[in-house]
UniProtKB/TrEMBL annotation:
Family: Belongs to the TVP38/TMEM64 family.
Main location: membrane
Keywords: Cell membrane, Membrane, Transmembrane, Transmembrane helix
Name listed for the protein in its UniProt record: TVP38/TMEM64 family membrane protein
Annotated membrane topology: Multi-pass membrane protein
Length: 242
């Protein structure tokens, strides 16, 4: 069988593999985020009993829970409730970086080869070149977009080949404002009229506006690059062959 005959079959297999990975993540998301089979409050109470080690233990456990798609705002609020806004923010950031690293690693192992197979070698190489130049800032930008799921995005970034160091650094930089917001709200849960709660809501609004603006500009830039690439390809095909 020739390569041209086997290519569609290979892409079909890659597509099925990616579809199964996505289906697994969606089922996992339903179980932990909708059905809430994991009692985050009970986990938080157990960690509180570890004494001085509680911040470190909470960061590690939250990183794992985040990787299985337990919502990050719930974990961050628990951090604020246990450790206050200052220490809690750093605990939340540590957990966020851990979740991004774990999710990116798993996404890379599960979906990298299939993503390249679907894209094709030429497109995959072009994407790798883009990632090398802008991968870090893509991760940072995603963290500013309102409503964008961090763990699921990290799985996708891993499958697309973004290096783990870029995922970790991007998560740290881009998640800092939201880490403060959700942690501060957790620390203020008994008094949402406190100045800390108002400050957290203000920061969230600013981050949402910046994220929406950045997403719009990024989309326009992507469309412009794509259109230029299409025009360049047409021009190349139109040149006479000597």
């Amino acid at each position: 069988m020739s390569d041209s005959e086997s290519l569609p079959t290979g892409r079909w297999r890659h597509g099925v593999r990616l579809a199964l990975c996505i289906a697994f993540l969606l089922v996992l998301f339903y179980l932990v985020a909708v059905a809430r089979v994991i009692d985050v409050g009970a986990v938080r109470d157990l960690i509180a009993e570890t004494g001085p080690l509680a911040p470190v233990v909470y960061a590690l456990v939250s990183a794992l829970l985040g990787a299985i798609l337990v919502p990050g705002p719930i974990l961050a609020a628990g951090s604020g409730l246990l450790f206050g806004p200052l220490v809690g923010t750093f605990v939340t950031l540590g957990a966020t970086v851990g979740t991004a690293t774990i999710s990116g690693f798993l996404g890379r192992r599960a979906g990298r080869s299939s993503a390249r197979g679907l894209l094709g070698a030429e497109r995959a190489d072009r994407l790798d070149a883009q990632i090398e130049r802008r991968g870090l800032w893509v991760v940072v930008g995603q963290r500013f977009i309102p409503g964008a799921p961090d763990a699921l995005s990290s799985y996708a970034f891993g499958a697309l080949g973004i290096p783990l160091w870029q995922l970790a650094a991007g998560a740290f930089i881009g998640s800092a404002p939201r880490a403060f917001v959700y942690t501060a709200l957790g620390a203020s849960i008994g008094d949402l009229s406190a100045p800390l709660a108002y400050a957290a809501i203000t920061v969230w609004c600013v981050v949402a506006i910046i994220g929406a603006f950045a997403a719009h500009r990024g989309y326009r830039g992507w469309r412009r690059s794509r259109d230029q690439g299409v025009r360049g390809g047409r021009s190349a095909h139109a040149e006479p062959v000597e």
